[in-house]
Write a structure and sequence with these properties.
Elements: E1 2-5, H1 16-24, E2 30-33, H2 42-50, E3 55-60, H3 84-104, E4 108-111, H4 122-130, H5 137-152, H6 155-173, E5 178-182, H7 196-201, E6 207-212, H8 213-222, H9 228-235, E7 239-244, E8 246-248, E9 252-255, H10 264-267, E10 276-279, H11 287-301
Parallel strand pairs: 1-2, 1-10, 2-3, 3-4, 4-5, 5-6, 6-7, 7-10
Antiparallel strand pairs: 8-9
Helix pairs in contact: 1-2, 3-6
């Protein structure tokens, strides 16, 4: 199953049916409804699905967006927030996503799990790598600083995330829907990469690993995972699917497959036909490059 995320085109449309028609005309039988789906797009989406014009593979929490939010906002409400009201909103709008997934026949919902309270280090880390400082003591001290700070702060947020996802998994499971825990590119977001297998081990079977190829490559580039391929292999037994996009080093992602540095052929042995494969591309990617990227990944991973 290959799919194209609406993160590529939702901002250009006021009619959900036209948005999905554009994706179908590129040759995709499936679309992912991403975290930029405004309430106004919902009627057209339902019309397209009910008419059999396209199928929906996945939703990305929160979908549709809360009333009054008109921009992509997957982290607007964090499962890990210290504020009870924010966690209540995260629960409320995640339930709405589950309900919408059932209405459109989606198999899986992609989740962000939250974050520790840590200033954004990614930009500084990427700047050091761009300057060729990755193998220097200065860079290693920065990495150590990040790791020490986030480990000191992980216990409470991690438990809040586990509790929230367990409860959501029960609600989703009653409707036959899977949840997918996405690996993240920001070093403050959880689960941390070396904790992913343990994190998933505390969750029920209908919670799967969702592998974002671009995020994993960025983490390798920054030195937070040793090797993208080995990371993918270690989590493949729990894999639900992938977000597919390429990376221009060290951290420009959401590029078409084949246009950057990711060795997709190295990941191919663990990608199976039953896995959901979603191209997640920057809105600025031209139509012809979307087509080229789709052709490239199918030539490497197979047509199904």
């Amino acid at each position: 199953m290959y799919s194209l995320s609406t993160c590529w085109n939702s901002h250009r449309h006021t009619d959900g049916r036209a948005m999905l028609k554009e994706i179908r005309e590129l040759g995709f039988e499936y679309a992912e409804l991403s975290h930029g789906i405004r309430i106004s797009l919902v009627p057209g989406i339902l019309e397209a699905v009910q008419a059999g014009e396209i199928k929906i593979s996945t939703l990305h929490n929160f979908c549709p967006l809360p009333m009054g939010i008109n921009y992509a906002a997957p982290n607007i409400f964090k499962f890990t927030s210290a504020e009870r009201r924010e966690r209540e909103n995260a629960w409320k709008y995640s339930l709405k996503t589950i309900e919408f997934a059932e209405r459109v026949g989606a198999r899986l919902i992609v989740l962000h799990s939250g974050a520790v309270d840590l200033k954004d280090y990614n930009e500084k880390l990427e700047s050091y790598v761009e300057q060729g400082l990755k193998d220097t003591p200065k860079y290693q001290r920065l990495v150590q600083e990040v790791e020490e700070k986030r480990l000191r702060r992980i216990e409470g947020p991690r438990q809040l995330a586990i509790e929230m996802i367990r409860a959501l998994a029960q609600q989703a499971g009653e409707k036959g829907i899977l949840l997918g825990i996405e690996n993240r590119e920001a070093v403050e977001e959880i689960p941390f990469d070396d904790d992913l297998s343990f994190f998933l081990g505390e969750l029920p079977d209908n919670v799967r690993y969702w592998h974002d190829c671009g995020h994993a490559q960025i983490k390798e580039n920054l030195g937070f995972i040793a090797q993208h391929r080995m990371h993918f292999e270690s989590l493949a037994p729990r894999l639900g699917g992938c977000h597919i996009h390429d990376v221009i080093p060290p951290g420009i992602d959401h590029c078409p497959p084949g246009s950057g540095m990711i060795d997709f052929s190295a990941l191919a042995p663990w990608v199976k036909p039953e896995h959901i494969k979603v191209l997640e591309l920057n809105p600025n990617v031209p139509v012809e490059d979307v087509k080229k990227g789709y052709e490239h990944i199918r030539s490497v991973w197979g047509a199904e």
